[in-house]
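Input:
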Amino acid sequence: MRAETFSAALGEIDDRYLAEAETCLPQKRVIPWKALCCAAACLALIASVLLPNFGGAPGVRLGDTVLTGQPVPVAPAARGVMLAMVNPSLDVTLEITAPKGTVITAEAGELRLLDPETGEVTGSGTAVPLPGDCVVCWCITAADPGETYMAVIGEGARSRRLTLQYDSETQIWMIFCE
Amino acid sequence: MEDKAIIALFFARSERAIEELNGKYGKVFTALANRILNDPQDAEECVSDAYLGAWNTIPPQNPDPLLTYVCRILRNRCIARYHANTAQKRNSIYDVALEELEETLASASRVEETLETRELTALIQRFLDRQSREDRVIFLRRYYYAEPYGEIAKRVGLTEKNVSVRLSRIRGKLRSFLKEKEVIA
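Output:
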């Protein structure tokens, strides 16, 4: 059959089909907001479970210990005694989980960004932008047991404050994170 | 102006009927004629012919809806002009639409040539009745009104790609239907 034959026959169809085709108004595409919101909420929930740092504050570990508001010793008691006595350099190596671009700022001492593989210093200063999850060494020369040292990771409501304090009872430097 | 008022002007044999008809639907008619003929001058002449056709048939005809009625006259005029212009290079949207149909309707059999237009029209209507409203609109906007995919997409709220895919499926169903009815082999 030739298309022209078909087209001629199509030209004779009943008015009701043509009226239907003519009166069809442009339709707005319906966006299923409810379903999309549910899906987004589910994804956020899954992400928050799978990625501990997703949408939350930066995480900080000292060795195998996750830092919280509970003080954790940064050095053995014997070394703590020695530190208190001679005020040597205090180096605290922390594993930080944070989004890329988060800045860690120390009120005292120097922050050194370390290569997790080689341990080489890849950046340093009192304010260091983090490349994402990384290892940072917080170095305080001549740490004074009478002082409290602070550093802040990130800014705003999701920032974390690191505090280094000397515990005179146990004679150990302690760190906690709020 | 309401269609009924325009028809009343036709019945009163007032030439304002043509002015009002042109004012309300002129752009629609010109666009349809252009899509089939791809020639502004031919299109303009066909639109004028269609107005004359409406003038000569209303009354006694009292069409409802008026747009459909004049579109039909116009389409027939345009297709007649299209065939008269076969010596010219074909490059209209109507040509492209026909090419799409050629593939669907290709058949080794000559049976269909004995089929009268009226019978084929009845079959097309039965086929259309089996389709969803949206598919009917898409099919007719393409193969009756020779509209490009983009305009159909806007009309039905789909993307051009969706319209293309939908038309391909409808043509496939049309082919199966015509085979089932032994119109094509």
